[in-house]
Amino acid sequence: MKEKLLPPTREEIALLPPFSGMVLEQIQQPRGAEALRSALQDLLSCDLVGFDTESKPVFRKDQASDGPHVVQLSTASTGYIFQLHDQEAYPLIRQVLEAKQVVKAGFGLQSDRSHIRRKFGVEIQSILDLDTVYRELGYRRQLGVKAAVAVQFQQKFNKSKRVSTSNWALPKLSDAQLLYAANDAYAALRIVQGLQDSGHGQKVAQLVR
């Protein structure tokens, strides 16, 4: 039986050099017909994008989430952030998520899939859950983005718990929220590229659903 691999510990990750993520100048929140059309054209021209969602946290067991409240899609150069209280972006989001030619890569996407179905009434096509990829590569536990960045690049991906549990339903997101959301999606994209560069391209392609 093949020995299961263990991800690096929190202490080991803390010693690594930082992962170079997106900066604010690379993040867009398209609004208006022209900006949305340009964003859609950019996203549909990609074979692969990073994908994630954010929801306002729920603190009681009997409280149901009405999220997601944010959808983020990342190309190699631009992080697109869509706040879902603005339904102007819904047709773009539906089109990208249903596009079979664009692989959407991220972590823990099974829950995102059900939330997207409820929110938009669509099934995500061509989805790549990186937790599944690393499990197939022999890792015992789900890695998540921090451990995967450490495994793939020997770098430290900084994630703020304070930002992750902030209110994602706010009318205007803070700079910290924009950076957090964009880099979650961007890191997923970079990890897939890293897997392909390290000889796992065939395994990655097989696990697109």
Task: Describe the model.
- The protein is α/β, with parallel strands linked by helices and 209 residues long.
- Helices cover 44% and strands 12% of the residues.
- The protein has helices at residues 10-14, 33-44, 90-98, 109-120, 130-136, 144-153, 161-164, 175-206; strands spanning 27-28, 48-54, 70-74, 79-83, 103-106, 127-129.
- The chain has a 6-stranded mixed sheet.
- The radius of gyration is 17 Å and the shape is globular.
What attributes does this structure have?
209 residues, alpha/beta, 6-stranded mixed β-sheet, 8 helices, 6 strands
- Distinct helical segment count: 8
**Which spans have pLDDT < 50 for at least 5 consecutive residues?**
none
The helix/strand series, from N terminus to C terminus, equals: HEHEEEHEHEHHHH
Beta-strand residue percentage: 5-15%
User: Which outline best applies?
Assistant: globular
SS-based class: alpha/beta
Order of strands, main sheet, comes to: 1-4-3-2-5-6
Rg over CA atoms, rounded to whole Å, is: 17 Å
Spatial separation of the terminal alpha carbons: 27 Å
Q: Main β-sheet: number of strands, strand sense, barrel status?
A: 6 strands, mixed
Q: What is the topology?
A:
Blueprint: H1 10-14, E1 27-28, H2 33-44, E2 48-54, E3 70-74, E4 79-83, H3 90-98, E5 103-106, H4 109-120, E6 127-129, H5 130-136, H6 144-153, H7 161-164, H8 175-206
Parallel strand pairs: 1-4, 2-5, 5-6
Antiparallel strand pairs: 2-3, 3-4
